[in-house]
Amino acid sequence: MPRGVVVVYFSRFGKPLQAHHKVVLDLGAKAIAKIKGYEFGGHYDTAHHYSGPLFFVPDDTLLLDEASSLGIRSSNDLYGGVVPHLFVKTKAITHGLVDRHAERPTGWSPAFTERVREIVLPGYTVFSNRDARTAARRMLTRGPIRLKKTAQRVGKRSDGDCNVG
């Protein structure tokens, strides 16, 4: 008898997946169910009553409040990650702000940007037009730059980045 149920969960902030990504997600969840000795329950349905504890395999990093509402309390409940703020799951955290007066979302911390500064391209993360202009002026002195939305995954090669949150 299975000890729990593994379900695939589509986050409210996840991006639409292509069909082959959904297949891979399902296959991964089935493999996890087998390893854990759990039943595979398919895609999570709030209306369904599941027998036993749930183990979630989400399509994307979850926000803390979303994970909490699902009953996710620890790594024993989830194959994936949980973050406190939406911007934390984006590349916005890889670059610092233009200065100490720059606009920033609630929860912004410079700690990670300081730790990875030596291993990422030079650049800034900005959350306002004023800061974007400042960042662009500084970066253009180094050569070509690219502006990217923080959730964007691809871009052309450049000498620096300016992530727009």
Key terms for this structure?
165 residues, alpha/beta, 2 domains, 3-stranded parallel beta sheet, 8 strands, 25% helix, 19% strand, elongated
Separation of the first and last Cα atoms:
47 Å
Main beta-sheet annotation: 3 strands, parallel
Number-wise, the strands total 8
Q: Order of strands in the sheet with the most strands? A: 2-1-3
Number of domain units: 2
Radius of gyration of CA atoms, rounded to a whole number: 20 Å
Strand content: 15-25%
Task: Tell me what you see in this structure.
The protein is an alpha/beta fold. The protein has two domains: 5-84, no CATH class; 87-164, no CATH class. It has helices at 19-36, 64-69, 111-116, 129-140, and strands at 5-9, 39-43, 54-58, 62-63, 82-83, 123-126, 146-149, 161-164. A three-stranded parallel β-sheet has the order 2-1-3, with helices on one face. Strand 1 (5-9), helix 1 (19-36) and strand 2 (39-43) form a beta-alpha-beta unit.
Layout of secondary structure:
Blueprint: E1 5-9, H1 19-36, E2 39-43, E3 54-58, E4 62-63, H2 64-69, E5 82-83, H3 111-116, E6 123-126, H4 129-140, E7 146-149, E8 161-164
Parallel strand pairs: 1-2, 1-3, 4-5, 6-8, 7-8
Summarize the structure.
This protein has 165 residues and is of the alpha/beta class. The chain has helices at 19-36, 64-69, 111-116, 129-140; strands at 5-9, 39-43, 54-58, 62-63, 82-83, 123-126, 146-149, 161-164.
